[in-house]
Structure formats: structure tokens, C-alpha cells
Amino acid sequence: MRNIIEVVKEEAEAAQAAQITAVHLVVGEGRDIVEDLVQSLFRFLARGTVAENAAVILHHVP
């Protein structure tokens, strides 16, 4: 998850974005992803960054 936050911060900086409103994550169907846990961890790690209030949207693909 830390890597995701780093990528989000890098992309925001490259785009000169002051704020990120949403982060879309694509995950394989076979992955055991607990969406609530992902949301909580993202919120915790994004504190104090441009992604602090961003929504996390998971897209499950085959």
C-alpha cells in the first residue's frame, strides 16, 4: 500500500495537482482483497498528502 501512496504522490506532482479526489485500483478476481481494510489502510497512509481525502475505488477484473 505504501507503494501505491508513493505512485499517487509522484503522479500528482507530475500533474501539478494540489489534491487527489479518487484513486482507482485494479485487482484480479482471484485476490483475497478486503475492501474495508484497503480503504482504512489507504486513509491512514495518505494522511498529510495530496491524497488525504481521496476515495479509493476497487475494480475487480478476471
Secondary structure layout:
Elements: H1 2-14, E1 22-28, H2 35-46, E2 55-61
Parallel strand pairs: 1-2
Give your account of this protein's structure:
The structure is a single chain. The protein has 2 helices and 2 strands, in the order H-E-H-E. By secondary structure, it is an alpha+beta fold. The chain has a single domain, classed as 2-Layer Sandwich (hypothetical protein PF0899 fold). The chain has a two-stranded parallel sheet with strand order 1-2. The longest helix has 13 residues, at 2-14.
Uncertain residue segments: none
Number of domains: 1
* Strand line-up in the sheet with most strands: 1-2
Helix residue percentage: 40-55%
Shape: globular
Please give the number of β-strands. Answer: 2
CATH architecture: 2-Layer Sandwich
Global Rg: 12 Å
What's the CATH first level?
A: Alpha Beta
Overall structural class, as computed from helix and strand content, comes to alpha+beta
Beta-strand portion reads 15-25%
Output mean pLDDT.
91
**Chain oligomer state:** single chain
- Characterize the largest beta sheet: strand count, sense, and whether it forms a barrel: 2 strands, parallel
Assign the CATH topology.
hypothetical protein PF0899 fold
Number of helices: 2
Amino- and carboxy-terminal Cα gap:
21 Å
The ordered H/E elements are HEHE
Protein name: Hydrogenase maturation nickel metallochaperone HypA
GO molecular function, one term: nickel cation binding
Keywords: Metal-binding, Nickel, Zinc
InterPro entries: HypA/HybF
